From TrEMBL:
Its main location: cytoplasm. InterPro entries: GrpE, GrpE_CC, GrpE_head. This is Protein GrpE. Homodimer. Residues 1-77 are annotated as: Disordered. PANTHER family: GRPE PROTEIN (PTHR21237), GRPE PROTEIN HOMOLOG, MITOCHONDRIAL (PTHR21237:SF23). Residues 55-66 have a biased composition (Acidic residues). Keywords: Chaperone, Cytoplasm, Stress response. The keyword Chaperone applies. Participates actively in the response to hyperosmotic and heat shock by preventing the aggregation of stress-denatured proteins, in association with DnaK and GrpE. It is the nucleotide exchange factor for DnaK and may function as a thermosensor. Unfolded proteins bind initially to DnaJ; upon interaction with the DnaJ-bound protein, DnaK hydrolyzes its bound ATP, resulting in the formation of a stable complex. GrpE releases ADP from DnaK; ATP binding to DnaK triggers the release of the substrate protein, thus completing the reaction cycle.
Length: 229
């Protein structure tokens, strides 16, 4: 009959170190449950390497990246040829920007001149339209003076003088005078009279005086024209 003993065998679990079988618990919580403060990365648990993921999927500590990017890079020495190319590129860029600035200034000046020219033309057109509306009254005064119906120094004569002064103030001038060469741009021929005394079309008589302001014609002069036989 075999003898049983209570002595442990070499492979018995009782021979192993009790601490070897104890589980290792790592507290990786970022918030301290006791104080409620945020733990430093070293307190939250060991990292698995820069830029790598830990066992629980958390990213590793990357606090050193800011220092990496904030550090000044190494000085690079350019060769004489490369430096010349760089200087030429800078000069070309400055010249291009200067040309763009001059072009923009020229366009601005042209725009201002065009606006002023259009404004002056519009003003002249409005003034011409207003003065044109007074021409019939001025014609009536001229006919009355020709027939002796307007005594010198009378009120009507003073009114006629003031109207003509206002016309002169705006640069209004009369066109069409007896003996002047006929100009179809300013004169309207109502009658043609053959004459041996003229070498070309000439105004023989003015039927109705014409007016112009600057180069703008308010009304053509109606005239009788003498033409060569």
């Amino acid at each position: 009959m075999a003898k049983h003993t209570n002595e442990p065998t070499p492979d018995s679990p009782d021979d192993k170190d009790p601490s070897a079988e104890q589980p290792v618990i790592r507290d990786k919580r970022r918030i301290d449950p006791d104080t409620g403060d945020v733990r430093a990365p070293s307190e939250a648990g060991p990292s698995t390497g820069s830029g790598a993921a830990s066992e629980d999927g958390d990213t590793a500590d990357i606090d050193g990246i800011d220092e990496l990017f904030s550090a000044e890079g190494p000085d690079v020495e350019l060769s004489a040829e490369d430096q010349q190319i760089l200087d030429q590129a800078e000069q070309d860029l400055v010249a291009e920007m200067r040309n763009d600035m001059l072009r923009a200034q020229a366009e601005l000046v042209n725009f201002r001149n065009r606006v002023e020219r259009d404004r002056a033309a519009n003003r002249e057109a409005v003034v011409a339209e207003v003065l044109r509306s007074f021409l019939p009254a001025l014609d009536d005064l001229a006919r009355a003076e020709a027939h002796g119906d307007v005594p010198e120094g009378s009120g009507i004569a003073l009114v006629a003088q003031r109207i003509r002064g206002s016309f002169e103030k705006y640069g209004v001038r009369t066109v069409g005078g007896k003996g002047e060469p006929f100009d179809p741009h300013y004169h309207e021929a109502l009658v043609q009279l053959p004459s041996p005394d003229v070498q070309g079309p000439t105004i023989a008589d003015v039927i109705e005086i014409g007016y112009a302001i600057g180069e703008r014609l308010l009304r053509p002069a109606k005239v009788a024209v003498s033409v060569p036989e």
